[in-house]
Amino acid sequence: MRLLSLVLLALILATQYPLWWGRGGWLSLRELQAQVQAETDKNQALTARNNALQAEVQDLKTGISAVEERARGELNMIREGEYFVQVLPRQ
Questions:
Q1: HSE toward the beta carbon, residue 50, CA cutoff 13 A
Q2: Per-residue confidence of the chain (91 residues) as pLDDT tens digits?
Q3: DSSP 8-class letter at 88
Q4: Are 12 and 6 in contact (CB under 8 A)?
């Protein structure tokens, strides 16, 4: 009877080891789920960024105000008939 108990205990341990620590076990499953969640969050952030860039491209293609805003802000351009005034701080 004692031998039978030891054999059953050994079988139980032999089947539980791969379930918990083996390849495809619970611990590796949790790690993979964490990696999937991290990649999903990253993809959502990139999708939001892509949507914002797509909206900006569409605005630049269709609207003159976006082009004018870019020209004024990045290239320091002014319209014809406007004056550019720059106030320098005292030194």
A1: 6
A2: 898 888 888 888 888 777 777 777 788 888 899 999 999 999 999 999 999 999 988 888 888 888 888 888 888 888 888 888 889 999 8
A3: P
A4: no
User: Could you give the dihedral angle defined by the CA atoms of residues 36, 37, 41 and 43, in that order, rounded to the nearest 10 degrees?
Assistant: 20
What does the DSSP assignment read for 10-54? HHHHHHHHHHHTSTTSHHHHHHHHHHHHHHHHHHHHHHHHHHHHH
Query: pTM value?
Result: 0.54
| 71 Cβ contact list (under 8 Å, min separation 6) | 77
State the Cα angle at 69 between 68 and 74, rounded to 5°. 105
